[in-house]
């Protein structure tokens, strides 16, 4: 009680009132409550009380294990534990990725309360020989549904196998899903199910004002900039679908200088940097944080005024967790969801089914600032920034394509050329995975008429028009020589198959000259025929040095070089055959290699 009073915790929330008593009785608990309702204390208080009753010491080893899906949430839980439990003599530890494994291994066997992420915990179970959990008294999973959503199911199953079966288990989350029930069947024994707001009218806090706008893809960046310019004294979190979107738009908005501090939080950052950004944003009174869903789970950002979902969330659960970063602990807050016209109908239906009150508002076009030319100027001056824009483009398309709900997300309905321009790019970068899907669609449709992946008439028109643009672009670049060279190549093949009779050496020499003159044209034809098939027109870029996930476009010079070398070999072989055939028919002696005088120097003075 003393720790709670010193930490200024005086009011008990509903989830704490209903779950702490059950947990102190030794029962397994499956608890769900709205975001910002105080779930962290609902499991920390029973954990401290359990070890206090057992008079647990550092010699007894691990007594309580708390697992969270993200490093930031684990760090936040650890901070709350230090505040509330500072008057106890228990040892507490935090093990997360990004820290020194050897240093953690030296201390882990002395820890009584361990807060961790699943991957790091399993790594210690496999590699740290003196790490034991045989005396574990309580297992706690925070944001349990997200642990499964993030692909931790196999990891969690392996962890649970290494834990004693005789233990108490507490599971907490803001949403209740089937996946949590599946996990509950694996680890809970006759659990007490507590859903505080199950009968509530809405699934989100009553103090949260929620709205959505329908915005064309090419206007979203302009809309975001205009919004920030009109909310300079507010604290805002903007959620994006991918890390590369955050990286590019963060750099761009720093250059645009909207009038308030701009921060970025995503999974590609080092752990120290993520903690630094989190702490910095918490301290600021007015700022904007560009983030991925890494910031949507459990993190407590005080006094956030706005949550903007720049990209449509995967489902209603993700929406609820995102907006939960504001209107916490009965404070007020506002949330704005940005939807494309193709996403509006299905997504709004999902939110209504989950009892989320959301109202449509309109954009005032007079207040919309166009920043496209400024972005183009930035990219023209900075090649690295241009490559980030290309990666942003590809990454967004990939995130849309990988979404499960195809009623909401259809990558083929997106205006690619217009979206590229809105990012400051002159043309749409090459997107290889879409090319593969485009090639597979006709085959799949003919093989199985019930295939869920169907290409609409609009998709066909869009793709075919882009292909035509790509072909015309390549033909223009090669000055219309593609068709001419193809004709010459066909004519040369006919001559090879049916060589004409030669009347003398002079005609043979003339034929040799013609072959030599056409050799360069044939090389160009080979290269042209390859490039005509590329879609969309590529830009010169250094993105090839990046990983597969960063595939943004550009001519692969090494690949072109290999193609030309192969064509050279083919041309030379055909040329030799042709000359030999002429020599044989005309009874001319074979061509001999000229003698080289070794006394002649390669260099002359």
From TrEMBL:
The family line of this record is: Belongs to the DEAD box helicase family. DDX10/DBP4 subfamily.
Bias (Acidic residues): 504-523
Which domain of life does the UniProt lineage start with? Eukaryota
Q: Name one GO molecular function term.
A: ATP binding
Domain Helicase ATP-binding, by residue range, is: 20-194
The catalysed reaction is: ATP + H2O = ADP + phosphate + H(+)
Q: What is its EC number?
A: 3.6.4.13
Stored InterPro entries: DEAD/DEAH_box_helicase_dom, Helicase_ATP-bd, Helicase_C-like, P-loop_NTPase, RNA-helicase_DEAD-box_CS, SPB4-like_CTE
Keyword RNA-binding among record annotations = yes
Pfam families recorded: CTE_SPB4 (PF13959), DEAD (PF00270), Helicase_C (PF00271)
Disordered: annotated span: 443-555
Q: What is this protein called?
A: ATP-dependent RNA helicase
Described by its record, this protein's role is as follows: RNA helicase.
Coiled-coil portions: none
Identify the residues that the record assigns to the Helicase C-terminal domain, covering every copy. 207-369
- Basic and acidic residues composition bias: which ranges? 486-500
Q: What is known of its domains?
A: The Q motif is unique to and characteristic of the DEAD box family of RNA helicases and controls ATP binding and hydrolysis.
Q: Which UniProt keywords apply?
A: ATP-binding, Helicase, Hydrolase, Nucleotide-binding, RNA-binding
Biological source species: Anas platyrhynchos
């Amino acid at each position: 009680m003393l720790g709670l009073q010193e930490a200024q915790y005086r009011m008990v929330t509903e989830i704490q009132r209903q779950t702490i008593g059950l947990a102190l009785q030794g029962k397994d608990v499956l608890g769900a409550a709205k975001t910002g309702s105080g779930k962290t204390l609902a499991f920390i208080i029973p954990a401290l009380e359990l070890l206090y009753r057992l008079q647990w010491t550092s010699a007894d080893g691990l007594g309580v294990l708390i697992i969270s899906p993200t490093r930031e949430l684990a760090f936040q839980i650890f901070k709350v534990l230090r505040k509330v439990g500072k008057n106890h003599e228990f040892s507490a530890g935090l093990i997360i990725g990004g820290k020194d494994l050897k240093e953690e291994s030296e201390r882990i066997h002395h820890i009584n309360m361990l807060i961790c992420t699943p991957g790091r915990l399993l790594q210690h179970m496999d590699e740290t020989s003196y790490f034991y959990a045989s005396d574990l008294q309580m297992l706690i999973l925070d944001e349990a549904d997200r642990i499964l959503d993030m692909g931790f199911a196999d990891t969690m199953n392996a962890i649970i196998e290494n834990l004693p079966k005789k233990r108490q288990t507490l599971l907490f989350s803001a949403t209740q899903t089937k996946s949590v029930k599946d996990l509950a069947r694996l680890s809970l024994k006759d659990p007490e199910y507590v859903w505080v707001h199950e009968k509530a009218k809405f699934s989100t806090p009553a103090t949260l004002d929620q709205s959505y706008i329908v915005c064309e893809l090419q206007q979203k960046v302009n809309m975001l900039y205009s919004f920030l310019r009109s909310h300079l004294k507010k604290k805002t979190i903007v959620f994006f679908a991918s890390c590369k979107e955050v990286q590019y738009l963060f750099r761009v908005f720093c250059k645009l200088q909207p009038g308030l501090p701009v921060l970025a939080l995503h999974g590609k950052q080092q752990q120290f940097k993520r903690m630094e950004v989190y702490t910095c944003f918490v301290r600021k009174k007015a700022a904007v944080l560009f983030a991925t869903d890494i910031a949507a789970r459990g993190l407590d950002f005080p006094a956030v005024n706005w949550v903007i979902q720049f990209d449509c969330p995967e489902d209603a659960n993700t929406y609820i967790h995102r907006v939960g970063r504001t209107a916490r602990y009965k404070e007020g807050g506002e949330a704005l969801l940005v939807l494309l016209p193709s996403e509006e109908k299905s997504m709004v239906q999902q939110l209504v089914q989950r009892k989320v009150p959301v109202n449509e508002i309109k954009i005032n076009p007079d207040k919309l600032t166009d920043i496209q030319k400024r972005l183009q100027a930035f990219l023209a001056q900075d090649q690295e920034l241009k490559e980030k824009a290309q990666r942003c483009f590809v990454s967004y398309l990939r995130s849309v394509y990988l979404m499960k709900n195809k009623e909401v997300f259809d990558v083929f309905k997106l205006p690619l050329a217009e979206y590229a321009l809105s990012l400051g790019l002159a043309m749409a970068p090459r997107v290889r995975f879409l090319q593969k899907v485009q090639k597979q669609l006709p085959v799949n449709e003919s093989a199985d008429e019930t295939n869920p992946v169907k290409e609409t008439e609009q998709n066909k028109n869009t793709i075919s028009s882009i292909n035509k643009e790509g072909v015309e672009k390549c033909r223009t670049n090669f000055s219309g020589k593609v068709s001419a060279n193809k004709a010459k190549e066909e004519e040369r093949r006919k001559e090879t198959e049916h060589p004409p009779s030669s009347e003398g050496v002079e005609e043979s020499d003339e034929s040799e000259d013609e072959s030599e003159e056409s050799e360069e044209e044939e090389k160009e034809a080979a290269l042209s025929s390859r490039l005509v098939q590329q879609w969309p027109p590529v830009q010169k870029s250094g993105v090839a040095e990046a990983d597969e996930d960063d595939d943004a476009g550009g001519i692969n010079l090494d690949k072109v070089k290999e193609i030309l070398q192969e064509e050279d070999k083919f041309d030379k072989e055909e040329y030799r055959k042709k000359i030999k055939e002429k020599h044989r028919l005309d009874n001319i002696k074979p061509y001999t290699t000229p003698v080289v005088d070794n006394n002649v120097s390669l260099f002359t003075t």
